[in-house]
Amino acid sequence: MESVCDAHAIVLVVIEDTNQNQLDQKFVEFELEKVSENKVNCLRLTFTQCTNRLSLDQDTYSLLVDGGKHKVPEWQARLTIERSTAIKCPWIGLQLANTKKIQQVLDGAGVVEHYFPRQPQMAADVRSTFADLWGLENDDEQTTNVIQDAISNPHKYVLKPQLEGGAGNYYDEQITQKLKTFSPQQRAAHILMQKISPLVVKNYLIRPFHKPVLVQAVSELGIYGCLLGNGEDMSISTNISHGHILRSKGEKVNEGGVAVGAAVIDTPFLI
Prior knowledge:
Blueprint: H1 2-5, E1 10-15, H2 22-35, E2 41-46, H3 47-53, E3 54-56, E4 63-65, H4 77-83, H5 92-97, H6 100-106, H7 111-115, H8 120-127, E5 133-135, H9 141-152, E6 157-161, H10 173-181, H11 184-188, E7 190-194, E8 201-205, E9 213-229, E10 236-250, E11 264-266
Parallel strand pairs: 1-2
Antiparallel strand pairs: 3-4, 5-7, 6-7, 8-9, 9-10, 10-11
Enzyme class: ligase
Protein name: Glutathione synthetase
GO cellular component, one term: cytosol
């Protein structure tokens, strides 16, 4: 935690070469400046720029910007960050946990229960939030059966690659076509998920330069959380929920990402 109090410490925001989230990120930076009374310095770098400007102090493992002679290849930039003592948001473990494959593995028999060994009700409560998920890398009877059912009843499933941002998923007849033509390697790079049928309500969708449209809409509620811990001794100093985000889209729209234009940011009506 010493680095948090270091007057020379900075907040490094790693961004894409073509960044669509700069407004969201800027509000985070503004809030950091506010709570620190303008003592926090923020720096925005792409991974390519990280290649040329980041290095690791070999004695303290501090992450240095423009402070060392030893540069790292671009694909090693993330490893350099992860090996450092810098606080990561997110750290690599959280990003892996957010991938489709890890979510599917967590749905396996006994996996959630492993993390709540003496809390069966907690494990059951966590499981109650899951949709059914299936990996497609095996040739066993269960995998064969679920693939055949998805080919025959594609409306019951979503076929998902390891992507984020509300794009790249397959629906309906696309599922049938893909599962019939995928190579084993391509199939293994996807998972099948039970298609969710959320509550449908009437709602106005408002987009820039377009008139408001009244549609039958479905929504997805996300909860913001903050967890600060120590990876060495696995201790947790902060673990809180704070705030939410609601994304809404038309009932017949398959994809759900705001960035790709499928959904809009919404506000729940709290009673």
